[in-house]
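A reminder from the course coordinator: this example appears on the midterm review sheet, so study it carefully.

Given structure:
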């Protein structure tokens, strides 16, 4: 049996085409993340990490937040990152699917999501969790090699950072 992999969904004449034998894991399914690409958490993490606001970087941040949500974080609606605390949900996000549920439905199956292969996404997170090794090591995915594009640093921002470090002891 071939190793499972993530495939890309396509749209033809207004209909979503799911590759044969794959499980769809986008926002229209039970595996959907409680965030979207222009969610305030995604925007904040892009700025906090100094990443360019490209589509691929947004998918990378969305995959990171999805992994945190599956691990039990963000269930209360609070989000903590480097001292930043935000509460931007009118109600707490829904409970994530359990590990048993992910294993039962997704282990050994190809997963289909919208981003191009090699771009991090929710499908890659589910693929690595569902097909982890017996010792708990994550299953390698194509997006593991993804490196985000960082924002260029100007001289004034470096001076500002140095001022912040010396003034506030960061």
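Designed residues:
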């Amino acid at each position: 049996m071939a190793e499972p992999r993530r495939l890309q969904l396509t749209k033809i004449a207004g209909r979503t085409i799911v590759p044969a034998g794959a499980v769809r894991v986008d926002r229209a399914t039970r595996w959907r993340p409680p965030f979207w690409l222009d969610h305030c958490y995604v925007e904040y993490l892009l700025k906090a990490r100094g990443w360019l606001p490209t589509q691929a970087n947004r998918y990378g941040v969305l995959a990171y937040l999805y992994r945190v949500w599956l691990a039990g974080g963000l269930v209360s609606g609070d989000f903590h990152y480097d001292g930043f605390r935000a509460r931007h949900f009118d109600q707490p996000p829904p409970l994530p699917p359990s590990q048993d549920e992910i294993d039962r439905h997704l282990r050994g199956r190809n997963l289909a999501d919208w981003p191009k292969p090699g771009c991090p996404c929710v499908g890659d997170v589910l693929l690595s969790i569902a097909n982890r090794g017996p010792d708990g090591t994550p299953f390698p995915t194509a997006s593991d090699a993804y490196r985000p594009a960082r924002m260029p640093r100007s001289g004034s921002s470096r001076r500002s950072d140095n001022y912040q470090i010396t003034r506030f002891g960061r």
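Residues 27 and 33 are 7 Å apart (CA to CA). The longest helix spans residues 55-70.
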